Each structure stands twice: as C-alpha cells, then as structure tokens.
Automatic annotation (TrEMBL), chain A:
SUPFAM superfamilies according to UniProt: MetI-like (SSF161098)
Annotated localization: Cell inner membrane; Cell membrane
Organism of provenance: Marinobacter xestospongiae
InterPro entries in alphabetical order: MetI-like (IPR000515), MetI-like_sf (IPR035906), ModB_ABC (IPR011867)
Membrane topology note: Multi-pass membrane protein
Keywords: Cell inner membrane, Cell membrane, Membrane, Molybdenum, Transmembrane, Transmembrane helix, Transport
Name of the protein: Molybdenum transport system permease
Domain ABC transmembrane type-1: 8-214
Family to which this protein belongs: Belongs to the binding-protein-dependent transport system permease family. CysTW subfamily.
Amino acid sequence: MSAEWQAIWLTLKLATVTTAILLIVATPLAWWLARSRHWLCQPLAAVVAMPLVLPPTVLGFYLLILMAPSGPVGQLTQSLGLGTLPFTFEGLVVASVIYSLPFAVQPLQAAFSGLSERMLEAASTLRASPLDRFFSVVLPLARPGLLTATVLTFAHTIGEFGVVLMIGGNIPGETKVLSVAIYDHVETLEYARAHWLAGGMVAFAFLVLLSLYLINGRLGGHGLKP
Amino acid sequence: MSPRLQAQLHHQRPDFTLEVDLDLPGQGVTVLFGPSGCGKTTLLRCLAGLESARGHITVAGETWLDDRVQRPVHQRPLAYVFQEASLFPHLSVTGNLHYGYRRTPRRLRQIHPPQVEAWLGLETLRERFPHQLSGGQRQRVAIARALLTSPQLLLMDEPLSALDQASKQDILPYLERLHRELAIPVLYVTHSPEEMARLADHLVVMADGRVRAQGSLTELLPRLDLPVTSAQEVGVVIDATLAAEDADWHLSRADFNGGALWLPTPTRPLGSPLRLRVLARDVSLARQPHHDQSIQNLLPATVVSVDSDHHPAMALVRLALADTPLLARLTRRAADQLNLTPGQQLWAQVKSVAIVD
C-alpha cells in the first residue's frame, strides 16, 4: 500500500472511531446540558466549547503533558498495563475525541433543547418508559441534529492537524494522517503529491457539507418523511 | 358498578396551592369547571403523575398514589388528551395510533384500532402525517391514540379550546359518542358552558385550587351560589326522552320526571334520550294556565325559593317540577306582584328549549 493510501486509510479509520465514540459520549452529555438546570451546566458547556477557540497546539501540548509517562494519565495507563498513549493510534483517538467534542455536543444540544416537553409527556401517558421515550421520540425528532453532529465530527476529525502533530507525530501507518502527509509533502517540495491530497480534501469537504445541507433542508423544509 | 375514582391531592407551588378531595363515579363524564388559573389543569396533571403531589389516588380499585406508592406516569393506565393534539410529527396517523397500543400489554387491550378508527372517523386518514391534517382531525387522532392504551381513566384538558368553531362542532358529536361507548371515568376540563351542558354527567366546580362543589350536572346547574354560568346563561339542564310526535306541526314531546316539553321535531327516533337546556330568562310564571297566548309549554311548578340576581331589578325563582329543578328570571316587581312564597303552586311558561345533546 502506497504511503498516500496508508494515510487516507488511517485518517478514515481515526475519523470513524472518533465519531462512534463521540456519539455515544456526546448524546447523554448533550441531553443533560439541554434539559438540566443544574448550576454545573454553564461551566460544563464552556469546557465543552473550549476546543473551538483554543489553538490546537495548546490542546495538544496539555494532552501530551497529561499522557506522557510522568503525567497523571500516563501513570494511570501504565499502571493498567496499557503503556503510554502519545505517538500511538489510541492516543490520537483520545485527543480527537476531546478536540471534536463541541462538534458533536452542540448540534445535539440544540436539537434536544428544541424538543417540546409536551412530546415527552404525551409519550409517557402512552405507557412509554423514560428510555423507551428517548429512543422512540427524542432520537427520531432530533434526527437532523444527530446527522449534523455525525457529519461535522467526522469531517472535523479528518481535518485535524495541530493536535495530531503535537501528540501523534509522524509515524506511517500509526499516526501519519492526511493533513500530516500533506505537510510533509510541502516541506519536501513535492507539490504534485501535495496537490492530490489537498485537492482531494477540498472536494471531500465540499461534498460532505453539500449533502448535509441538502438532507437537512429536505428534513426541515417539508416536515419529516418516512 | 365500577369502583369509584377517589383522589385526595395536595400540590404546592410558590404562588399556588391545590388542595382537593374528589370522589367520582366509576364511569361517565365529569366536567371540571372553573375560571382560568383555578387549578383544573394542575389537578389533571397531578392525577396523571405529570406533576408531583402528595395524597392518594385510587382508580378502578388500584392505588396509584399513597404514602408508599408513587407510580410513574407510564405505569398508570390512563389516557391524556392535551389542549394541542401533540401528535408525534415523525409518525403517520397509524404510527401515532399504534404508539400506545403496542405498549399496552396484550391481555389488557380492550380497545382495538379498527373500532376506534370507526368511532372517530379516521379510516381515510391512516397514511397521512400530522402536518397534513386539520386541527380537528389532529385532535381526533390524539383522542384515538389515547383510547388505544385501553385506559382506566381518560383525562381531557380543554381538548376543543384550540380549535375553531367549525372544528369544535365537527368533533363534539364524536365526544358524545365516546361518552356512550366507554365504561371508564372521563375527567374533562373546560370553561365552555356549551361543552359542559352537552357532555357532563357530573360536575366538579373549582375555585382557587379547591373544589367548591361536586355532584350531578342536573343537581348543580340550578345552584345559584356557584360560578357555573354567566348571568345571561343561568339555567338548568333536563334529561328527557323523546316520547311522541305531532307530525302535522313538526313538534315532538320530550318527557321527563316532572313534566313534558314540546319542541321542534329533532332528527332522531322516538324513544331516544335528549338533554334539554332551559335558560332562566326564557321562563315566566303565571298563577293561572293561560291558553290564550303564544307560549305552548305550560308546566305546573312549585316555588322553592326566590333568590337575588346579579342585577338589583331581577330575581331568580327556583322551581320544582316534581324532582326536576327549573329556574325563572323575573323582575323583582313581577315577583312581588305574584306574591311568590315557597311551596306556592303556579304555572311555568317556557318560551324556548334548546337540545344540547
């Protein structure tokens, strides 16, 4: 497998794993942020949004410190026999999950906040238990938000660079993702190869966002169709 | 006879206290009546478990709430019809109808989709989605959806108030039909005297989070101390039977305990039950039965009491036709000239009778 395809494959794998983990983590978190009136809501929402404003290098730097052999997370993973996370694929997954968290949480939170309490009350008078209500009413009604969260998380993870560079480095097949490969090509003045990858990403990003807008436009414009 | 519905509830909010003690028959429609903000909806929500309350609730012999038990909403076999239909927008009419039906244990299912679709006229709407329905159709689907959980108690919170007049008239006959078909208690919140007159068997009058009175409609409506009707609309409701027809004049006679009233022949067979409404302002009194005048309905009546009216010039006379109460609104001067005293026998002239059900 050529170095390019290896980078593409690794990037897609990272984005898929990250998106899967984030949907599981972000859904209850977004639900809580949307529905609870606890005083911790606002501080937590601010923490979740931090990756939006921080330079990725800052995030990567602190993650590196935390996950290094002497850092608290590093000591924990070592004591569990997992070794250390920096410069591994698993380390990249952890970093991506944190880096893309707001892109998963915020669309879901908006979708959950817009949900009318009355729908849930109606479902509960129709003998639906709380978990049942979540799967039969909340998730179907939050479908546009769920779709947005999935696509944005996936696309954003594919595009990440700074965090990867800080904690993943440049190990082919392990941590060398597309953005790093492009950077390498440019550094070594291999512009043609950089063009292939960079142009491919531009097209990819456009197609992803276009399909998202088309689908959400259809969902929102004419009500929900089966 | 089905077990009674009993509820003692205490619910506290910073600016409002609900304190009620209800004891209602195990079937029939009970209308909760009272001004806005008096706690009708809160009472319904407490019964459903949508608001927390202390006290106890027993429905159909089962305890839903007491010191030890607090069943969550989804474990109370009830149906709730909200002011707005609140249909699930992502499900078709059939999907909405089956939502509660599928979640009702098979052995408890007593009401099935074909039956309810026929009752509420939904056969042609099955494939549609909520946004493709009119307001009245949506509310019919919501009622059907609620009934398909085979509830032990049906709670309806002003189900018609969000509808225009035409949709209301469209849906009322369906409600009257349910009323005849269902053997469960129905609690119906409204502040429309028309809905109350058409649907109620029993009445609970509320004010400031408390029950002012509860009893049968025919018993409570003539009571003048209750804010049940506006001054113009004071009157009684009489349950009668269509007994005879005078085909030449297109008139029919409705018999009731204590007399009979003639009215324009309605489109329903002889022998069917009728609910009549007689407003106090349409009743006048005479010492002698005058046949040389236009009013056809002359009934022998006994004066029970003479009460004051909202207007100082007027008096409300409470009458008894055997067991049936009747009210007459007269000027005080007329009452004085007739020298009305309790126990006095005279003739009530009824100028107009409305069929409400």
